[in-house]
Design goal:
Alkaline Phosphatase, subunit A, 2 domains, 13 helices, about 15% strand, globular
Length: about 450
Amino acid sequence: MWKFTGLLLFVLCIQSAVAQRPNFVIIMADDLDSKQLSCYGGKNIQTRNIDALAKQGMKFNRLIASEAMCVPTRASLFTGLYPMRHGSFQNHKRVDRNDLKSICHYLGDLGYTVALTGKDHSTKPESVFPFKIIEGFEKNCVANTDDYSLDGISAFMKEQQAKPFCLFIMSTNPHMPWTMGDPSEFDADKLVLPPHWVDSRDVRSDFTRYLAEIRRLDNQVGEVMTLLDETGRKENTVFIFLGEQGPQFPGGKWNLWENGQYSSMIVRWPGKVKAASESQAICQYEDIMPTLVAMAGGKPIPGLDGKSFSSVLAGKKNMHRDYAYGIHNNTPEGPPYPIRSIRDNRYKFIRNLDPSLLYHNKFMMDTVRQKNYWTTWLRLSETSAQAKQLTDRIMIRPAVELYDLQTDPYELNNLAGTPAYQKISDKLQLKLTEWMNLQGDAGAGTDRKY
């Protein structure tokens, strides 16, 4: 009798612990310029739903992608490892280690069902990423449509009545080809362009189409928030919005300037995370999976590059990392062009490992298509000194770059070589080299490994 009673109490305790564990719903953008979000200071579009989420949770102002490309960023999100360690250190290069574990395993061991709908670029090999795949969101980021339905998500949530779940909703907005939404909502002449862009009619036209897809993304966030309300899941669900990496415009994606690495993150956890709060703590995508595990009651996982920032969410700490790191290998998006970066709370240091090369990316710098905005940039640079400076900045780069992100957020004034900043430059370069060594990063040679 006592044995039976003890067993019953044990089972009830386990069931109670599972019931208290939060669900997780993570919705992720695709190539988002996070500074366009109005809650992040954007002037071109009012992202009403994402802004509403920020009022209900904590907005992180220093989430940094370690590689400004879709596949590596997502692999880091799922594994808690930097690109060199999970093997997906070039775009469209899948994780090459079958012995790795991902969030599917770590949360699965805690009793969670881990599912994914939408863009599925980092779900192979299946032994590393055994997601439960749900129909609903478009998988192909270069499709001409982003048709989606919440029916599959709603059905999945209903199935998980006795078991906690973690659901990744991977949107394809605002990834090119920018065919969705209504660009006429935006007046091209009145748009506020980033100061590192050459101002042209073509780029303004493309920007309206890009913003139209941000509108689509914002609507998706709103619909998922409504679904959580309607299904009664809001109070026991941690809802997270992620911006991925920067936009497919020159100086953004496929670079290690802030417009490429900078990302957004908003975390809502009713009763646990203070509403309308902000954090300046430096975090990277590698930190998110360990944080979810900690929030689910799991123990720290040894051997990861990421570490939990749950104490920041709880308001117990203001800082998380001293530095955020970056890696870029240009293959197969163009000829090899290896870059590494490090930033602290104020300064960004970049090493272009082979500055004798010209930077080129086939998706952004195609001169065959005459209507491509890059062609316009080149043409304007023939007569405008400013346009030439901004265009040359993309193609011709020095060995070392140093920027004061506080006074120069768009990194237009390179301080490298300035005596007053030499100690800062030397310190960051040393830390970057230490990180590369720890990662087993051989530098320029990795850009030829594909």
